[in-house]
Amino acid sequence: MAAESKTKYDRQLRIWGEQGQEALEKASICLLNCGPTGSEALKNLVLGGVGSITVVDGTKVEKHDLGNNFMLDEASLLQSKAKCVCAFLQELNDAVKAKFVEASPEALIEGNPLFFSSFTLVIATQLLETSLLKLDKICRQSNVKLLVARSYGLTGLVRISLKEHTVVESKPEHFVDDLRLQSPWPELKEFAKTIDLNEKDPIIHKHTPYVVVLIHIAEKWVDTHGGCLPTTRQEKKEFKDLIKAHMLDIDEENYKEAIESSYKVSIPHEISSQLHQIINDSAVEVNSASSDFWILVAALKEFIENEGAGEPPLEGSLPDMTSLTEFYVSLQKIYQAKAESDCRVMEHRVRTILKRIGREPDSISKSFIKNFCRNARKLTICRYRPIEDELSSPSVSELQKYMTDEEYSFSVSFYILLRAVDRFVANYNRFPGVFDNEIDDDISRLKTIAVGVLGDSGLHGSTLSDDLVNEMCRFGGGEIHAVAAFIGGVASQEAIKLITNQFVPLSGTLVFNGIDQKSQVLAL
Amino acid sequence: MENSFAEQGRWRDIDNLLSRPGNIVGPGFEPSPQLRQEIGEFARVLVVGAGGLGCELLKDLALSGFPNIDVIDMDTIEISNLNRQFLFRLQDVGKSKAEVAAKRVMERVSGVNITPHFCRIEDKEINFYNDFNIIVLGLDSIEARSYINSVACTFLEFDSEDNPIPETIKAMVDGGTEGFKGHARVILPGMTPCFECTIWLFPPQVKYPLCTLAETPRTPAHCIEYAHLIKWSEVHSGKAFDPDDPEHMQWVYTQALKRAELFGIAGVTYSLTQGVVKNIIPAIASTNAIISATCALEALKLVSGCSKTLSNYMTYNGVVGTHIKVADFVRETDCLVCGPGTLIDLDISTTLSQFIEILGQHPKLLVMKSSITHRGTNLYMQSPPILEEMTRPNLHLPLHELMGGVPDDTIHASGMAVRDGKKTSCLRKLRVKFKGLPDGTTEMGTTSVCKELEPDLN
Ligand SMILES: [Zn+2]
Fold first, then answer.
1. Residue B382 counted as domain residue
2. Which phi and psi (to 5°) does residue B356 adopt?
3. Beta bridge partners of A157
């Protein structure tokens, strides 16, 4: 990477690294409708350095566009909106290829579905239900990721639609270290033995890493407890007391760390339920059409059932802990060596599987396998139902739960009302509340339609708050800049996660609640 | 001035919110087609910081119908800002962030007036901040937030029953981000927790014990901090380390690498060296956009009442899925900053210089080198030199006399305090009460100010 790009992108490279940046620079993004929501979403991605953008919009700039879109100015009036927005976006980063198509997204969806197949990701903003459902089918057929973003008055939503998104580097924030204190392997035990817990030299005593302290004390415990590690609350407390009894001084940081980490010896010797689900997914029966990810999962399953004896490959990293440099570096090497040896076993299994399914045995790189092993405990899979499925048969039990949960009631009501608005538009060819003198009529019309949406969603007899129906009409279909910036911001955040294949994208539909900011993700 | 004919329809979407009644709105919401224009005439917004959040905030506020905005930032533009601070271009590097940001937004959004202030927040008179209806904070440091918070809290007055007087509440909206995470909050001093009430939300910065750096380094960061904090001063006697000097950084990197090799520690890189030494917080455009938008929307709601406001702390976390949570924190009733003030009993004979000394030793305050103001009058100023000289004679006068002989009143001290081992500017509200006065004059609520003794400074 060029030195200038490295400096320019420094603050984000610290988040997703050069690999993530490379993925962004390869991505081509298509934006449908460049109102403020779409313009803001693209703005954030252009700044981050995506490969190319294509802005699709068939409208001309009107006066009201100047009141909510920063990517337009007075000189843009009456010109193609796509062209003007595209030009201002290009100014932000000349490394990005910016193009525009002056056409209505609806017309492209109807008349030219192939148009979408060349993109990595389509961001559809302000699209009504009928067009969206068609677009979703098109994108799924051509394996293009779809992000849906909508701003509407003080509400809005963001959702993702694609068949499957697999993540190796999910980078969760709080994840327990992979130390294997409940089942230390021979080399680790051997090393622990070289350090005496009854060491008289106070410097050594207070610089014995807690990993060593815990292995020693766990061994002692097991000897006096019929081969079992502490499990009950009482036992865990006694275990801590046993650690405390080994302290020479109450200020020994390493022993404090040992007490804090003592729960790690009691972590059950089994894989997480999430990982269990992944290795038992039907996709693990791989064939020549399987993705590299699933081939690795197939190898992982074999590893866990054989060499791993119930555990995935060791991660191989050691958190910092009070210790002499010498002890710490030796421990680090022991963890690394075990991780490398696990990785070699995995590699062998991967090559064998590739041969079996008729693929080139070297077609998956060693670095990919290594990275997979390092993250094996954190693998994540996101699958999304086709939007049509959700709309025609949402999870009624979830909906009912949301309707009765005070924390969710605004968000779920907005979700229903946004659908009702689309039906309203289909009936009246305009948004509810656009004319001051028809607001009262629109309120009762929208209410009737919303009752219909509720019924179709399996919520017969449920009602929505009149205040919210009223709010919906008050918005008059407006796109408020701050709301659009929020929705566009979330959309670009999710786009980055989808493109870099790092972190975990939004799992359901995020419904923005601009009234009290209690936005929620609905899983329907 | 806004030309209403040319503006016809431009603000259609925001006007829907401001002109139409609703049932889920803020207190005192009076919808009318003129509301946006009225807000434009009376509302002055201050944006503190013109960085990642600040750029977004200026855009968001300008497009939320605020035509009068000020922005203050002492920083100049760097290349590493360009991945998110979208108002800046490569050719702007080295220029004032506040000035360039203000110019760019005014060029794009006609009719908006943004006044930049290219200076430190401490350089402004306290009263500068009183001119704004709302202060929006887009900062990345705890110290700066704490300072602005204390300034906003000084304007807060309490009635005789210790209830905050609504007209004196200076609303603040604060945002912050780190990577894929961020927060937005509304602070109404006296009503909701102030920044200081919930200071525990900001964990102290990671610091390594010196003995670890010197004797038992284990991580690349230990090697870097050794080179930065210990080795530098050993070798460069008297020369201060400048994190912005690439040669200095290169030196620390080389030394850290040597030390890492000596101890068999892997992973020291130039980028990590910069990150550790400058305590770089990763930052991206999208998170800043999300948080700023939340702050701007709350600012609009606070000023117009067009919807309920956030009560009072929102967090966004996009690391694993997307999680947005709202927490309703409660105020610390005995907060040093947003409470009625720390009570200090004094003899009527206590001089101003004795009083300043007391503040330095007071266990709750520990404010050193205080400048003292009473009801907007400078009693003693440590700087600038001209003010110091003018106020110096007051040091030997009894405070009781300087305060106009009132039995008790609020007084403000601004000075230096130590937080996390670092010296920071702070502003404290104190409630001074004089002992030994004749009965009947010590009742609370006496606020008459005797102007004759006011030093002639203005
Ligand atoms: Zn407070």
1. yes
2. -60, -40
3. A150, A511
Please give the structure tokens belonging to residue B122.
């401490």
Instruction: Assign residue A41 a region (left: φ > 0; alpha: ψ between -120 and 50; beta: otherwise).
Output: alpha
Residues of A in contact with B320 (CB under 8 A): 170-173, 380, 503-504
Q: What is the mean pLDDT of residues B429-442?
A: 73
Average pLDDT, chain B: 90
Asked if residue B314 belongs to a domain, the reply is yes
Give me the residue spans of the domains in chain A. 3-163+480-522, 186-266, 273-383, 387-475
For residue B80, is pLDDT > 50? yes
Percent of chain A with pLDDT over 70: 100
| Ligand 1 center to A491 CA (angstroms) | 35
Does B143 lie in the same domain as B99?
Answer: yes
> Is A8 in Cβ contact with B80 (below 8 Å)?
yes
Judge if B261 and B368 occupy the same domain: no
CB neighbours of residue B9 within 10 Å: 12
Question: How many residues are recorded in chain B?
Answer: 458
- Does residue B194 carry a catalytic annotation? no
pLDDT in tens, A354-412: 999 999 999 999 999 999 999 999 999 999 999 999 999 999 999 999 999 999 999 99
Min CA distance, A434 vs chain B (Å)?
A: 9
Mode of pairing for the β-strands spanning B45-48 and A97-101: unpaired
Contact yes or no for B217 and A12 at CB 8 A = no
- Reported as a single tens digit per residue, the pLDDT across A408-433 is 999 999 999 999 999 999 999 999 99
Report the pLDDT value the prediction gives residue A49, as an integer from 0 to 100.
97
Question: From ligand 1's centre to the CA of B136, what distance in Å?
Answer: 17
User: Within a domain: residue B218?
Assistant: yes
CB contact under 8 A, B216 and A207: yes
What confidence tier does A1 reach under pLDDT thresholds 50, 70, 90?
confident
Judge residue B98's burial from the number of C-beta atoms within 10 Å of its C-beta, 0-12 exposed, 13-18 middle, 19 or more buried. Answer: buried
* A3-163+480-522: CATH architecture: 3-Layer(aba) Sandwich (3.40)
Q: What pTM, to 2 d.p., does this model score?
A: 0.92
Residues of A in Cβ contact (< 8 Å) with B298: 517
Residue B445 covered by a domain: no
One domain, residues B312 and B407: no
My answer on whether B74 and B115 are in the same domain is yes
The CATH number for B18's domain is 3.40.50.720
**Structural domain boundaries, residue B418:** 342-435
- Model pLDDT, residue B438: 67
> Kindly report the CA angle at B265 between B262 and B269, in degrees rounded to 5?
105
Distance from CA of B41 to the nearest CA of A (A): 18
Calculate how far, in angstroms, residue A117's C-alpha sits from the geometric centre of ligand 1.
55
Pair A476, A431: CB distance under 8 Å? yes
Do residues B261 and B398 share a domain?
no
Boundary residue ending a domain (B327, B358, B387) = B327
Q: Which of B83, B275, B322 comes nearest A9 by C-beta?
A: B83
Partner A, chain B 56-95, Cβ-Cβ below 8 Å: 56, 59-60, 63-64, 79-80, 82-84, 86, 89
Is B68 in the same domain as B169? yes
| Active-site residue (options: B55, B194, B211, B338) | B211
Number of domains in chain B: 3
Residue from A7, A8, A11 to probe the interface with B (highest B Cβ count within 10 Å): A11
Asked if residue B376 has pLDDT above 60, the reply is yes
The whole-angstrom separation of Cα B342 and Cα B355 is 14
Interface predicted TM-score (ipTM) of this complex, two decimals: 0.97
